[in-house]
Design goal:
Layout (H helix, E strand, L loop, with lengths): L13 H5 L16 H4 L35 H13 L21 H7 L17 H18 L3 E3 L5 H18 L6 E5 L5 H8 L3 E5 L9 H7 L4 E7 L11 H10 L3 E5 L19 E3 L2 H4 L14 E3 L11 E5 L2 E5 L21 H37 L16 E3 L11 H10 L6 E2 L9 E3 L7 H19 L4 H4 L12 H6 L17
Parallel strand pairs: 2-3, 2-4, 4-5, 5-6
Antiparallel strand pairs: 1-7, 6-7, 8-9, 10-12, 11-12
EC number: 1.4.4.2
Pfam families: Aminotran_5, GcvP2_C
Keywords: Oxidoreductase, Pyridoxal phosphate
Length: 521
């Protein structure tokens, strides 16, 4: 069955049914087996000499049996991983609409700079005397971050957003203890990233939730109701996870400070306001910055990330070691608390000073764009998100009314009522259209949330095609064409997976299948 464009319809893959292949391949779409299935245990693609006699230091932990790893030739190895890479979806293959994750384009200039001699091969155990340029660059990047945020100090050590949250909240806790106070409560809005309450709880605070108004923002009066001498801080994301700017942020900061508490800002969405608003001017005391989101460095895959934390004057003395100090134009690294002078570092959060490659990429991004370019990137991200919102609002429902958003547009599933199609069904059908699904079911304050963030990376032509695809899916759902959704994706290599079963009963070890005999002639 063909659709209006003459392509196989979503109700089935006509090519796979009508023209099966012996290999399972579909032309250049190769059915790639597991490496354990194609490898041979008895061979290896590399000649390795037998080791000379030695005394093992592993004791009872020494392996007694074969390791069981597959052996492959170099061409087989290359083909295997290249084929797997072709099955992956990334920002270099298409639009990545994940809301709250900021999957923007990573300029190749940044990658080239990160691989320059003397940078790409730098090692954290080198003597400091051999890396003065690296220390100077860390200091310069920190200066730019302070300038962009309006904050006097920055801790560069944290490895990512959640690590940065931990750093900022530990600095707040250290400052409170230095005042001789004991405060036990942290306020967290209901719409916050899950790492916010987790971080507060990890360092011993009780989390008190702050509800959102009907428009998706935080009411200063609700904050004031919960303030007391026991409150240590509020953790507020701005723009928030509903894609909205907290318009009463200054009033909230004033109320928090009047109660003797601190204002921690989750900087995950800083990419919406860079060059437009300085968080320090809004009353922020600490904020982490995801270099791997706002300043284009690679995102995902478990790292490496970088989450520097900017600090107010009140918190600056408690920044962890190591940190960079610039005196008379010369940068030096303070590695030990005993060398921190009048400062009171909260301690050390990791062995080495951050992620050098991420620093280079972020610095390259900043220098190539300049202040005006970074401001334009923020403006374009907001423009693109509002273009998507305005182009879909006649078909898809908005939980907080048809009002301007920031860097991401948030829809709910009200418009799917009565169609027999769920949010998950809709997202899976997007895969058939060649798109990674948007963020689903987050933030939790919105039922059936569909959070879309195009970033500034996408052209109008790219957005128009994405919007047209979503409109076609939405109209199909409203027409009751449930077959298009119920089993989607139909064109992915493994169709729809049982995600619940996979999470609860994962198969973590490959076992050889039973041999299949050829049929007799």
């Amino acid at each position: 069955m063909l659709n209006r464009q003459g392509r196989p319809s979503a109700s089935g893959d006509a090519g796979a049914v009508d023209h099966p292949t012996f290999t399972g391949n579909r032309a250049l779409q190769v059915e790639e087996a597991l490496i354990f299935e194609i490898g041979r245990h008895e061979v290896t693609g590399v000649d390795i000499d037998e080791p000379k006699d030695f005394k093992s230091k592993l004791g009872a932990l020494e392996r007694t049996g074969d390791i069981g790893l597959p052996g492959l030739s170099e061409p087989e190895t290359m083909r295997h991983f290249v084929r797997l890479s072709q099955k992956n979806y990334g920002i270099d293959t298409g639009l990545f609409p994940l809301g709250s994750c900021t999957m923007k384009h990573n300029p190749r200039l940044n990658e080239k700079m990160a691989r320059l001699p003397g940078i790409g091969d730098i090692h954290p155990l080198q003597p400091l005397s051999t890396v003065p340029g690296a220390i100077e660059l860390i200091g310069e990047l920190g200066r730019w971050l302070c300038e962009l945020t309006g904050m006097p100090a920055v801790a560069m050590t944290p490895k990512a957003g959640a690590h940065g949250e931990l750093c900022g909240m530990m600095a707040i806790k250290a400052a409170i203890e230095a005042r001789g106070e004991k405060r036990s409560i942290v306020l967290v809005p209901e719409s916050a990233h899950g790492t916010n309450p987790a971080t507060a709880a990890l360092i011993g605070y009780q989390v008190v939730s702050v509800p959102a108004r009907e428009d998706g923002t935080v009411d200063p009066e609700e904050v004031k109701k919960r303030l007391s001498p026991d409150v240590a801080a509020i953790m507020l994301t701005n723009p928030n996870t509903c894609g909205l700017f907290e318009r009463d942020v200054v009033a909230i900061a004033d109320a928090v400070h009047a109660a003797g508490a601190f204002f921690y800002a989750d900087g995950a969405n800083f990419n919406a306001i860079v060059g437009k608003v300085r968080p320090g001017d809004l009353g922020v005391d600490a904020m982490h910055i995801n270099l791997h989101k706002t300043f284009s460095t690679p995102h995902g895959g478990g790292g490496p990330g970088a989450g520097p934390v900017v600090l107010s004057k009140a918190l600056a003395p408690f920044a962890p070691v190591p940190f960079v100090v610039v005196e008379d134009g010369n940068a030096r690294l303070v590695e030990n608390t005993s060398d921190a002078g009048d400062a009171q570092p909260l301690g050390r959060m990791c062995a080495f000073h951050g992620q050098m490659g991420m620093y280079i990429r972020a610095m390259s991004y900043m220098l190539s764009h300049g202040t005006d370019g970074m401001r334009q990137a923020s403006e374009d991200a907001v423009l693109n998100a509002n273009y998507i919102r305005a182009s879909l609002t006649d078909l898809m429902s908005l939980p907080f009314g048809n009002r301007a958003c920031m860097h991401e547009a948030l829809f709910d599933d009200t418009w799917l009522d009565g169609t027999g199609v769920t949010t998950l069904d809709f997202a899976k059908a997007m895969i058939d259209e060649g798109y990674h699904p948007m963020t689903m079911y987050f933030p939790l304050v919105v039922h059936g949330a569909m959070l879309i963030e195009p970033t500034e990376s996408e052209s109008k032509a790219s957005l128009d095609l994405f919007i047209a695809a979503l409109r076609d899916l939405a109209l199909s759902a409203k027409r009751g064409e449930t077959d298009r959704f119920s089993g989607a994706p139909y064109h992915a290599p493994r169709r729809r997976l049982d995600e619940t079963r996979a999470a609860r009963s994962p198969i973590l070890k490959w076992t050889p299948p039973k041999p299949v005999q050829e049929a007799a002639e």
